[in-house]
Amino acid sequence: MSTVCLPNATVCSGTNCLTHVSNINETLSSVLGIVLTVLLALVMFSMGCTVDAKKLWGHIRRPWGIFIGILCQFGIMPFTAFALSLAFRVLPVQAIVIIIMGCCPGGSASNIICYWLDGDMDLR
């Protein structure tokens, strides 16, 4: 019984065939991970450069906006997540995940949208 090697075999010796293993997916994943991390850091740093020190000091002296943000982020959002998990009758593990996600800040997308809409980046 003879074995015919595949056309992409690099070494073929009778019944033993070696093919080249491509690791392009691992390489591409590493490169994209590094590039996207650097780009995200660049975007976050450049938006941080738009913060005006006088406006920031004004928010620190009158912290109503900061208090409202903390109340919404750690009060209303987790309660809404809890209410939704009860309303949809999800499993307890899923409910915990929903509540944790309700406690987490929006991430970089909210910062970019706030910047595009000329929002107050000092409060963001």
Key terms for this structure?
124 residues; mainly alpha; two-stranded antiparallel ribbon; 7% strand; elongated
Order of helices and strands: EEHHHHH
Major sheet summary line:
2 strands, antiparallel
Q: Structural class, please?
A: mainly alpha
Low-pLDDT parts are none
Number of DSSP helices? Answer: 5
Shape: elongated
Helix content: 55-70%
Mean pLDDT: 80
Strand proportion, as a percent range, falls in: 5-15%
Q: How are the strands ordered across the major sheet?
A: 1-2
| Rg (CA only) | 26 Å
Number of strands: 2
Distance between the termini: 71 Å
How would you explain this protein's 3D organization?
This protein has 124 residues and is mainly alpha-helical. Helices cover 64% and strands 7% of the residues. It has a two-stranded antiparallel sheet. A hairpin with a 2-residue loop joins strand 1 and strand 2. The longest helix is centred in the N-terminal third of the chain and has 25 residues, at 24-48. The radius of gyration is 26 Å and the shape is elongated. It starts with 8 loop residues before the first strand and ends in an 8-residue tail after the last helix. The model has no long low-confidence stretch (mean pLDDT 80).
Give a topology summary.
Elements: E1 9-13, E2 16-19, H1 24-48, H2 53-61, H3 64-87, H4 92-103, H5 108-116
Antiparallel strand pairs: 1-2
Helix pairs in contact: 1-5, 3-4
